[in-house]
UniProtKB/TrEMBL annotation:
It comes from Nocardioides imazamoxiresistens. InterPro entries: Luciferase-like_dom, Luciferase-like_sf, SsuD_RutA_monooxygenase. PANTHER family: ALKANESULFONATE MONOOXYGENASE, ALKANESULFONATE MONOOXYGENASE-RELATED. This is LLM class flavin-dependent oxidoreductase. The keyword S-adenosyl-L-methionine does not apply.
Length: 405
């Protein structure tokens, strides 16, 4: 565990000046803590969840996609009509929807939500999962297909006349002009940790997404994607999206008690393959992001101020699983550490999904926004990070190990 330098109120050059917050919309109460056998939508629950995000001050919500999940386009349309401000992010696999059709569907969503649509393209990290819907391209080719897909989305939204295309993965004649978005081209996000992901994301994406990693490692990855963007001649660099699973309680001590209880329950759920896609995530993961998460977990359970990797270890690196553990103040300070390294889109979603979404909105987001407002007003950092040391203090580190088995 590293020790920070004496607190410097100077805002780091790498710090994001404007930060927005993302959550993930859940369709029913099933969680890794308490799985509920269901393949359906609990409509009252879903309405409450989306309303909680809107009331809690989140800016975006991700509508995930899997081979056995609800359709993300349809769910995103529902979110758009149930809210007035929050921006739905459609998770989309290029193999499932022809690019011109995807452009039409996304533009329709954007019109219905008056400019709130976002798309997150998933090239696919698992050959087995891709094959479930008939996609047999190898991984690097999947990213090459995503690159062509992005070009076609943008052309469909902006070309003033019909155009034809004869590419590696898509071919058509005399399309267009396509159905237009509400006001401007829709933001396109991608993620991944492979070389191919960085190349496509750096050259073409509006947003590049990461799972929560130790601060220095993440900063290196941000520099990599931005370097690729600059080499491609871009003057507007991709925004950086980073995802955490915070475990929060009134004090650091109570948060660690909760964390150790949670990880036992989550691990037991995973061992039974009892929660959603975990049935298909046994064995060594194929995608680089999961491999990195497991590598960090093997080296240490605790990094920096509050990053805890044991949740990633017990789920075999399945998706975004790294936690931030502590009081609202400690977790907010930890998120600000990532803001200082360049993250300007921060996704926080919990293991007790609805209750956590409410708690973050009430207790964590206001602290971060207060600090960001202070920075805007004074040009200096406030004292939250100096006063809540988390893992940089011995007492916190003792709490982190006290409940471990």
């Amino acid at each position: 565990m590293s020790t920070p330098s004496p607190f410097d109120p100077t805002i780091p050059e790498t710090a994001a000046r404007e930060v927005e917050f993302i959550s993930l919309s859940h369709l029913n109460p099933s969680t890794e803590l308490a799985p509920v056998p269901s393949r359906g939508i609990d409509l009252p629950y879903f309405r409450r969840y989306v309303r909680a995000l809107e009331d809690g001050g989140y800016d975006y919500t991700l509508l995930p996609y899997g081979s056995s999940s609800a359709d993300s386009f349809v769910v995103a349309s529902a979110v758009g009509q149930l809210t007035e401000r929050i921006k739905p992010i459609v998770a989309l696999r290029p193999n499932t929807t022809f690019p011109l059709v995807a452009a039409q569907k996304l533009a329709t969503l954007d019109q219905l939500t008056e400019g709130r649509a976002v798309v997150h393209l998933i090239s696919g990290g698992s050959d087995a999962e891709q094959a479930r819907q008939g996609d047999y391209l190898p991984k690097d080719e999947r990213y090459a297909r995503t690159s062509e897909y992005i070009d076609l989305l943008r052309r469909a939204w902006t070309e003033p006349a019909a155009f034809s295309h004869d590419g590696t993965y898509y071919r058509f004649d005399d399309f267009g002009p396509g159905f237009a978005p509400y006001d401007a081209p829709i933001p396109i996000s991608i993620g991944g940790q492979s070389d191919a992901a960085f190349e496509v994301g750096g050259r073409q994406a509006d947003v590049f997404s990461f799972w929560g990693e130790p601060l220095d490692d993440l900063r290196g990855e941000i520099e990599r994607v931005h370097r690729i963007a600059r080499e491609a001649g871009r003057t507007t660099l991709p925004r950086i999206w980073v995802t955490f699973r915070p475990i929060v309680a009134a004090t650091d001590e109570l948060a660690w008690k909760k964390a150790h209880e949670y990880v036992e329950r989550i691990g037991a759920t995973f061992e039974r393959a009892a929660f959603g896609k975990q049935l298909h995530q046994q064995g060594a993961p194929q995608n680089v992001g999961s491999q990195r998460a497991l590598g960090f977990a093997e080296r240490s359970e605790l990094y920096d101020r509050a990053l805890w990797t044991r949740t990633a270890a017990v789920t075999n690196g399945a998706g975004a699983a790294t936690a931030l553990v502590g009081s609202p103040e400690t977790v907010a300070a930890a998120i600000l550490d990532y803001v200082d390294r360049g993250a300007d889109l921060v996704s926080i979603r919990g293991y007790d999904t609805l209750n956590d979404a409410v708690d973050y909105g009430r207790h964590v987001l206001p602290l971060i926004r207060q600090e960001l407002a202070h920075r805007t007003a004074t040009g200096r950092r406030g004292t939250l990070q100096a006063e809540h040391l988390g893992g940089y203090g011995e007492a916190y580190r003792e709490l982190a190990t006290a409940g471990a088995r």
